[in-house]
Amino acid sequence: MKQLRYRSIAVGSLMTLSAIALNAHAQKSSGTSSGKPLKYFQGLSCSTVDPRSIGMSKDGTVTNAISDPRAIGLPKDTSKTRALADDYFLWDVGKVISVKFIDNGGSYTLRQKVKAAAKEWERYANLTFDFVESGDANVRVLLTDKGGCNSVVGSYATGVPADKKTMNIDTNFFYLKGVCYDNYLRQTIQHEFGHAIGLLHEHSYKNKIQWNKEVVYKDALETNGWDKTMVDFQIFTQYSSLYTNGFMYDPKSIMHYGFPAKWTMNNIEIKPNFYISQGDIETVGFLYPKNGAARPDMLPKFNLSNLTTTKVVKDNAKKGLVIYPSFNLSTSGRTGKILIIAYLLDSKGGTVLSKANPNNLVGVVKGGDLKPGTKLNINKGETNFELVIPFSEVPDNLLNYKIFVSIKMIDEVNDETKYLASDEIPYSAIK
Length: 431
Known about the structure:
alpha+beta, Immunoglobulin-like, Collagenase (Catalytic Domain), six-stranded mixed beta sheet
């Protein structure tokens, strides 16, 4: 295993962590959807947004979770037996979530239908969707005719750059020859807004479905262009009990894909679900209680926002590339660790070995414990945090290289790592 060399920390709230081991060579594989509804999903083909693909790769590719350090601890997302939800990215109880349609997508009539379908969740969860016409918004919805249907999960949306969408709604999923089929529209919107409040795919319960994987791989490739990596992430991902919140598996959940009997070894078909189920109602009622009760936040929750472009400068005085990530961070729940990682990538997106020590990668890691109630303004207004990669480690000619910065949260109690945000800085932007 090649390793990133560890260096000391510069922000008072952050304490030191030991270096983490990273593989030396990166591989890439496609993580994008063709945008066509998968016919075997019988009206619902949602691809949850893999956080690795946001702000990372300009061509939309997603890196391999085993061999690329950018993927360490990403959504192998794990949660006691309630419906599946990512409790690390739940909104605060009572949160007014601002929602905005972007890029002039969708007619007035279509937007009203989307609003009505989304707001059905308000009946059961102590949350409010506030649809705004302008300004910043927590959830940014693109109504389009391509790209499939997908959403980031819960409050992770705050870490997506403000000029980017957090939800894509492909109207081909409920329009046919100019006719809108409201049952498919409602199904699609309630599923995606389920993700937006933190719910995961219900078919990802561990050991609940006996998948006939080879048949699924074949059908998904032929009908939707999904390769094995995409199918593994969207369909075969399984979550531990940490993500079930005490509820039993619910095949009637709006968050469950429908699929044919031939996709399972025991020939069991799951029919499409068009309504929020009783199990869904109980789940969101627990996660966002309406009776004034506080939700027990037993996990560390890191809310990263206002991520702006990372500045990188050549500093002769400090004898290295000095990296200044910029973001706001607030914490709640219980204590967790933050990791801020920066490393060099070559023209093919692969990691680079140190010129000074070939056993190390060119990069640096800083991090430490953050208690609940911490608020950090990293390089906002004043310069208060930096990462330094020594010139002695980098190649002599950096023309075709770039810097990659990744921010992660670690829950050591549950052995979970959560991706928060990333930025990629090309050589041309290094001052």
